[in-house]
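Schema walk-through. Below, the input block comes first and the output block second. Nothing else is stored per chain. Lengths vary across the set, and this one has 370 residues.
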Amino acid sequence: MARRIAAGAAYGGGSIGLIGVAAVGVLLAEAQLAKRTVGTGTAPLPPAADGLYGRVFGTEDPLRLALLGDSTAAGQGVRRAGQTPGALLASGLAAVAERPVALKNVALSGARSDDLERQVSLLLAQPMGPPDVCVIMIGANDVTHRLPATESVRLLAAAVRRLRTAGAEVVVGTCPDLGTIEPVYQPLRWLARRASRQLAAAQTIVVVEQGGRTVSLGDLLGPEFAANPREMFGVDLFHPSAEGYATAAMAVLPTLCAALGVWPEPDRLEPGRREGVLPVAKAAAEAAKEAGTEVTGVRAPWALLKHRRRRRLAEPAEAGGAPGEAGEAAGTGGTLGETGEAVETGGAPAEAAGAADPRREPLPQDDPRP
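--- output ---
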């Protein structure tokens, strides 16, 4: 199905529905119940997180990072700039690259893929020039608003192509699994999961074809979300909490760093971690089933499927904040991680914070988790 969606987008195959017409009547009552529950909490507007991160490395010649997409990219649901995915990624990238990072976030809450053209145009018109790397998170609103899947991936492919032509690396966090939303019940839950995964796989195919990389967000790194939905979702039961955003950012950061050539882990394949070179459609389908999986092109029609190890993220200081503020609320962003290493994210150097140097600390080779 993902291959058909991508082909339809490329060759004008028209709309390919993600949900059969016969299921619509069954879903109406379920959808109305979910709508009455989701969003009843008061989710704050996304805090502005634009600015310079990693000032400890200076202020000259910063890496330019941009975020595009919907409310997930914007950070809807948290109250502090340092809790947004943009701030977490900018400060994490600064720590790994040992360079300052200038963040520009043009994501818009409620955006669908048809807003990407505007967002890309806004970015490319910036006086600083095109970003070095862009992170796009899009797709959830396409599913909930029933944007045709072929149209959705066509618009995403066009956005990636424009950014790549401008010289930016592109990392796309694919459509999250809407079946994890707590108030959604069966059979709507199953259909939402199926639609999300099909769109995520189709997004992977077209992004790789345009020279970008993808990271499957899936159920927003599901074991944590499935086990602790009350902690990982925000007050509106739809957007992630600070813990949830830190978990998602922790999955995207390795691919973001690898796209710029600064990730310390070598790119050798580890068959024991189910990594390998696969046909792009097969790699896309596998990635859609397992959150945190990276797919990048090798040579058409092949793609590399990789499970990069995630590192601990401490909560960054606000953009422009004083040195030493990073990690002041480690209970929010700093308690997550699988390797147990801390990434210094904004103020003092990692050594001063007692954290391991992310370039030199060896990664455990016996950790089977992605």
